[in-house]
Amino acid sequence: MDTPLPPADELVLVDRELARLDAHRSQLLARRAWLLHVLRAQAPSPAPQRPGSGPVADSTPRSAQNVLLTLGGVLLTIAALAFTLVSWGSMGIGGRAAVLGVVTSAALAVPVVLLRRGLGSTAEAVAALGLVLMVLDAYALHRVALPDTDGLAFTAVASAVLAGAWTAYGASLGRLRIPLPVAVVTAQLPLPLGVLAADGGALTLGWAALATAVADLAVVLWVKPAAVRGTAAVAAGVLGGWALLTGGVHSFTSPLPAGALLLACAAVALCVAWRVAKAAVAASVVAGLAVVAAAGGLLRPVLPGDWEVPGYVLCAVALAGVLRSSAPRAMRIGLAGAGAGVLALGVMWALPPVAAGLFGPLARTAPVWSGTHAEPVLAPYPSTAPLVLLVAATACAAFPRLWSRCVALLLAWATLTALPLSLDLPYAPTLALQLVTTAAALLLATRPGALTRGLPAPAEGPTAGAADADAPEADASDASASGSGSGSDSGSGSGAQWPGWGPVSVPAAGSGPVPPREVFGWSAFGCGAASALSVVAPALDTRAATFTTLGVLLGLFAAVAFLADGVRRIVAACAAVVVAAGLVSAGAAAAEFEAHHTALALLLVPAATALLGGRLRRHPVALPVELTGAAVALLAIVTAVPRPAVLALVLALAGVIAAATALRPERRPFASWAAAALFLLATWVRLGAWEVTTPEAYTLPVTVPALAVGVLRRRRDPESSSWVAYGPGLATTLVPSLFAAWVDLDWPRPLLLGVAALVVTLLGARFRLQALLVLGGAVLALDALHELAPYVVQAVGALPRWLPPALAGLLLLAVGATYEQRLRDARNLKERLGRMR
Questions:
Q1: 424 vs 342, 354, 419, 428, 539, CA distance in Å?
Q2: pLDDT by residue (tens digit) across 102-118?
Q3: What is the spatial distance between Cα 246 and Cα 701, in angstroms, rounded to a whole number?
Q4: Per mean pLDDT, which range of 216-225, 509-518, 520-529, 704-713 is the poorest?
């Protein structure tokens, strides 16, 4: 920001303004503290509790009253039931009728008086008793006056009469909350019970349930009390679901009558969706399911058995097309959701052939190149399964969303995967179709922008539009990068850029939403990789199929590695290396190489990856490719283990490859150590193959170069520790030789070891090197002890038995008497050793 003042003057003004703000803030904080003090002083103190006041009641009078009334009503109800069922026979007809009539009339009349006096809870309890008594009156009427009447018919009529009576009673006494909901519950019984009494059948019962549900919906829409509306809504859901389930079950056996019931259910659900906004989506889903079930049921009789599921799927797709209509949004979502649900069920039905085509070849038991082909692992399945997948893929592709495009891609790939098994294709066409599927998916992964154009750009982040590479310019830039003969190196170091390999762009974490082309590209690459894994197993049936398949896969992965971008390029390059290793193994098998000779052939792969890495230099693809080649080299080493002589050669050749790689500065830290280890292992294996048992033959090839490296390090860094420079090299030879000397009965090895340890000790004392002095002295002492031990034992055996303990005691006394001096000597020795390097 530009100002007319010089920087020094402006800084002075800024400091003054900050000081003024600090002073004003201090004043405000002081004023706030004073105001809080005043408010606390004015706050009233809590009133002390009066002495003798009782504890606070744990329940209000109203709740206690409700509990008492409920218990009283329950007890009266039990008494009425006992009177009706148990004591009925002890009274005459007139007495029984008079008792029930008087008690029921009293139970219905008392709430009127109680409501006038404001005793609402008592009125509710007595009214509930009256309702129960009315049910008992109906039961008594059937047992006494109409014993020959059909029970279901009488119950239907009685429930209708009771529902009307309770409705009138509840409407006249509007303050009572029980009668109207009970009337709604009772009103659910007349029509279903009447149909059962008339033996109307399941579909007629479904129509009765639907009619009752429609009446309940009318109550929900036009009655105000919340309890009544809630009860009616629950009853409508239960009976409407019953009707829908009945129609769906019978659509398989009676398509036309059941279809009419289902369409009626759909019409009712659509009316609910139109009138009730909160339930619009759910009601529309129900309507859509009913329509699909009705239409599919009507198509079943005219379609062959294999086409029944496709018929339902086509109906679901047609229903999902309502998204493009002008219906309300909630209804469109619900109907399309119902169609999508049915479509998903159809896709699940069609998946077994996909799984069998993908994983079935992996369960092969026939020998490689035997010419016999595996039998299908799936029982005969309807051949229309790929058609269902294709219809679903087409429907998803028409929807302009990223997830639908990805699902469409997966379904199209599943269609091609299931096609050979569904059509029972021969071996050659099956293999060709699997290769075509693999090629299509992998090549689509290189240019996913062609199928993601027109999709909404990511909404998060300010750079979302820039990150989205769906535009034609992005594809053009990719094409130019892949087709050009040079490009800039993406690493920081210099080096030649491999022709056609542009920089790998990997989105950083937190850089915004992933572009649609990346999601679609990975979906296509995953499909291609799965097909590639699946096609290898059946290709092993014949020699020609094996070479053809592996060659095609090598070309495909190499093409993806050159044409794709991002991490897909790296994964494809590594996959190409793995396929190349398989191709080399197949060539060795065709040439009838033995296993250890195959190991030598496999080393061609890491050699090629090392050369490719030298060309790519610091390109991000180089390191993964070389690591994959190193894994192939490890496989070659494992393959050559049964033949030690060949194993030594394989290790040596692998060491040569690692040493050549170490010539590059960016690989030197790791490759140099790997080369040294491989050469050492090759030497050891070769010595073992020659049946050499002398440990020095194994350790000296390590000690000599290790000491040479230590000398060079001490020259460059004189302050480095002798343990780091010389310790590992010396220990590699001295320690195994010491163990060998202790079990060796001859004298040359202990003598030579003692001389070598003495030389090391003297060198350590001369040049003040701690590692040489400690290691050499320790080995020399242990070697001398081993050599003198027999003579010491012989001398001790010739002495009297009491003399060794006495000598030991004297030694301990001498050490104890001069303990302080010995301690000082030990400390001096430690300090002197500590001053050494």
A1: 27, 13, 8, 12, 17
A2: 777 777 887 887 788 77
A3: 87
A4: 509-518
With a CB cutoff of 8 Å and minimum separation 6, the contacts of 305 are 382
Are 759 and 730 in contact, with CB atoms under 8 Å apart?
no
Provide the token pair at 503. Answer: 């920089």
658: nearest Cα among 630, 682, 624: 630
Spatial contact of 210 and 265, defined as CB atoms under 8 Å apart: yes
DSSP secondary structure, 759-777, as one string: HHHHHHHHTT-HHHHHHHH
The structure tokens listed for 260 are: 């009419």
Task: Give the number of other Cβ atoms within 10 Å of residue 132's Cβ.
Answer: 20
Residues 611 and 577 sit within 8 Å (Cβ to Cβ): no
pLDDT value at residue 479: 38
Sign for the pseudo-dihedral over CA of 61, 63, 66, 68: negative
Say how far apart CA 507 and CA 512 lie, in whole Å.
9
The number of beta carbons lying within 10 Å of the beta carbon of residue 529 is 19
Rounded CA Rg of the chain: 47
DSSP state of 92: -
Which residues have CB under 8 Å from 589's CB, separation 6+? 368, 369, 598
> Closest Cα partner for 166 from 210, 107, 80, 98?
107
Burial class of 234 by CB neighbour count within 10 A (0 to 12, 13 to 18, 19+): middle
d(CA 185, CA 188): 6
Structure tokens at 83: 């009177």
Interacting residues of 612 by C-beta distance below 8 A, sequence separation 6+: 498, 622, 625, 626
Integer Cα distance of 604 and 598 in angstroms: 10
Distance CA 144, CA 356 (A): 70
Residue 215's CB: how many other CB atoms inside 10 A? 18
507 burial type by CB count under 10 A (0-12 exposed, 13-18 middle, 19+ buried): middle
Please report the DSSP string for 554-622 in residue order. Answer: HHHHHHHHHH--THHHHHHHHHHHHHHHHHHHHHHHHTT--HHHHHHHHTHHHHHHHHHHHHHTT-TTH
Question: What are the structure tokens assigned to 163, written together?
Answer: 């529902």
**Rounded to 5 degrees, what angle do the CA atoms 68, 72, 76 make?**
175
Cα distances (Å, whole numbers) of residue 776 to 6, 742, 748, 760, 772: 76, 16, 18, 5, 6
Q: What does the angle CA 774 – CA 780 – CA 786 come to, to the nearest 5 degrees?
A: 135
CA atoms of 407 and 347, how far apart (whole Å): 11
Of 207 and 321, the structure prediction assigns the larger pLDDT to 207
User: What span, in angstroms and rounded, lies between the C-alpha atoms of 652 and 645?
Assistant: 11
Phi then psi for residue 61, to 5 deg, are -60, -35
For 170, phi then psi, to 5°, come to -70, -35
By the 10 Å C-beta count (0-12 exposed, 13-18 middle, 19+ buried), 622 is classed as buried
Each residue's pLDDT tens digit, 261-285? 999 999 999 999 999 888 999 999 9
> What mean pLDDT do residues 31-41 have?
81
Question: Given a cut of 70, is residue 798 above it in pLDDT?
Answer: no
Report residue 826 as tokens.
């030990």
> Cα angle at 680 between 675 and 685, to 5 degrees?
125
Residue 168: C-alpha distances to residues 158, 161, 521 (Å): 15, 11, 69
Q: Which of 481, 483, 455 is nearest to 468 (CA)?
A: 455
Whole-angstrom distance, CA of residue 776 vs CA of residue 770: 10
Which element (helix H / strand E) includes 551? helix 543-563
What is the distance between the alpha carbons of residues 181 and 170, in angstroms, rounded to a whole number? 9
Q: What tokens were used for 38?
A: 């005043």
pLDDT level of residue 527 (50, 70, 90 thresholds): very high
